[in-house]
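request received
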Amino acid sequence: MREQTDNTFKRRRDRLDDAARHELAVIDRVLVGNHTEGADDAEIAEFALRLRAERPTIGDDGRARLDTRFAERISEERTAVANPGPIDRLRGRFLSGVSRPAPLAGALATLFVVVGVTVALSSDPLNETVTVSSEGRNAGTALSGAPTNDSADSDVAESGRAGGDSQGSTNGQAMAKSAPATTHRLDELSSLVAEPNRSTSAIRRVERSGDLTLATPSVNVENVADGVIATTDRFNGFVETSTVSGGDAGDASANFILRLPSDRYQEALAALSGLAHVRERTQNTRDITDSYERAADRLKSARAESNRLRAKLAATTDETQAKIVRLRLRRAEASESARRREMQAMRNRVSNVTLGVTIVADETAEITDRGTIGRALDKAVDILTQIAAVAIVSLAILAPLALLALAIRFGYRRLRRSRDESVLDSTAAPTSAEA
Amino acid sequence: MDELIQTDRAVAPPPSTAGEWGAFERLYRESRDDVYAYLAYLLGDRTLAEDVLAQTFERAYRKRAGFDSRRGELRGWIFGIARNMALDELRRGKRELALDGAVLDAPVPAPGDHVIDRVVVADALLTLDPRDRELVALKFFAGLGNRDIARVLGRSETNVGSQLHRAIQKLREVLDA
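response:
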């Protein structure tokens, strides 16, 4: 309040009346050599000239000295400009034309914040639960969607459970130690997924599964169910099981177990999520690297055994011995075939994702599949919402920073002015005796 | 100088051509006496004023890219540099005498009414607050307009006008007394 009163008082003090403004104008005219009219103006003009006469002047000698110094110094500067140092060259190259670096730095900082916020917002985990587990921990849930009808698979699962407890120095151990269920970002997850074409032992083999619960009004359950099947086809997946029960009385529902290619899983999941209101979405991942490598080793051993027996058979001349070898070879080939199926099953577990989709009736849910224009509008609203979110968060960061910068600038100017004035005030006190 | 002032861009062009060098030299020749008058009065030492004046133009030349024509004229910018350098000198304590010594150092003219009047005016000036004396020096010795004074001192133009008017009123009262 006191400060406001002071400022008001200062503004009032700073206000010039017409007479004062006129006097200052007369002084300006006189100082540039113009004449004035009127007795009052003449008095002001005389005063201005008397003060002007006090002006310290430089003699001819002093002027000559100054001109010489100016010529020498500027000549040195010209030479320096003509032969710039390495720092000056760099500055000239990158900052030529940048007269005020502060606004440039401010703009860059703003850009940095906006990009940072955009990246941060776009990588949010979308309220999605992602569970990462390693073999042998929560195998029961993680394996629920995996095909187990292959006889070799039971061996793999068995060895996988054993392997899970003995993953000495692999990454799997770190994952197992972190927690049986650890929430990760999708980005981190995708880096865990094995690429089928790479075959080095350092690649982690990850089996993924997920559950998606969609809610839609009863009358729309069948439409959404059709959409699930169509979307699965579109992404080269297949429906492993499906159950659809119709009805308008709120008991309509549908259940699917889908197998989707890993490399298009996220795309497919996004498309499926767009069919209706997403009530729940969970993703589970399980590191099966050990099981995968053991299966590969077993297949390799079986092939080697078959090849060894084939070679032995070719080299045998004795008929009795040949019969024995043939018998052993048939068994070895059967074993190799089983190991090959086992290996194929492991590959399927890695290259396909099992997704359980449940459609539940919910009369309060909106029907989201509103045609192309409706989807486009939804997309546009989403994008605008994202932009608004980025703008709001950026503003929340930048506004306090800008205020802080302004406060610092204001404070610095006040400090500097006060320092300058204190220098003037501390000069020797004038006395009429000295004058 | 016109070439430097009339640039559309906020930045003075780098004097890479002979014409631009000439423009800077013209700026020096047109401002030299005014800057000297201000510095000599502010510092109270003619030799020091010469030093600071030479350094001022040297710095102005080096920092020419920082000149912003939207914030005032080139003359005001030069005076800003001169003031900062003079205050640095005073701050360093190289000279203790300031503001009130300049007139005393001036060459003594032949005795007469004119000399008496100068002493009276100098005496009247010394009754002012140091900040007001600087204002008077910038106005009457350096010949700056209120806008450029405001830029040099980092104040508003209105504040400069009212402060200057008060100082003038006080001086007139002293001189009329």
